[in-house]
Amino acid sequence: MTHRFVKICGISTADAAAAVADSGANAIGFVFAPGSPREVSAEQARSLIAGLPSALETVGVFRNQPIETVLRTAHAAGIATVQLHGDETEAEFDRLRAEGFGTIRALSIDDYRRLSHDGVLRADDRLLIDAVTPGGGAAFDPTLLSDAAPDGFWILAGGLTPQNVAELVGIMQPGGVDVSSGVEVSRGVKDPALIRAFVAAVRDA
After folding, report:
1. Is 124 one of the annotated active-site residues of the chain?
2. What is the pLDDT of residues 31-68, one digit of tens each?
3. Residue 71: enclosing H or E segment and its boundaries?
4. Pick the CATH number of 5-204 from 3.20.10.10, 3.20.20.70, 1.20.1600.10, 1.10.10.10
5. Tens digit of each residue's pLDDT (9 = 90 or more) over 113-125
6. Model-level pTM greater than 0.90?
7. Is 68 left (phi over 0), alpha (psi -120 to 50) or beta?
8. Of 6, 13, 91, 98, whose CB is crowded by the most CB atoms within 10 A?
């Protein structure tokens, strides 16, 4: 079995958080982006984190929010890592790292291709490549990375499910995967059985 990095994102209930912890996933994500059906408060996230094993990486997901809001929420929630989906600057990433947070830079496949072509992605970024509409449940065409795959470790997201993740991992060979809608029974509602099935599918890929 291959021990790729696995992150289960958009967790908002104790049952789902417990399923992530029991599944053998490496990381659990909490969405703080306003308007998301998976949005939680810092207080909700802190309460859920209190029952998790310390080895499970806790990630807060933000999108085009002021850096002061991100920092205040991240500290209040007690997360270890901040994932930014948006137009954040290098200085903002540096500020997060200076305050002790790990970082993940999330880009849509279109933005990744553009920024990679322009040569402006930094080597120290932990990179996540998502579909054009993050959280929309649609995978992107693997051929879009055939001539532009990242060097080193990167995380694949967008439209992954227990049924397709092994095939897409085999084609694109990411270092890790991230799922949210693919383990839901309805928008924003996670299914513990699907969480466990997803992690098992990745491990067996």
Report:
1. no
2. 999 999 999 999 999 999 999 999 999 999 999 999 99
3. helix 67-77
4. 3.20.20.70
5. 888 766 666 656 6
6. yes
7. alpha
8. 6
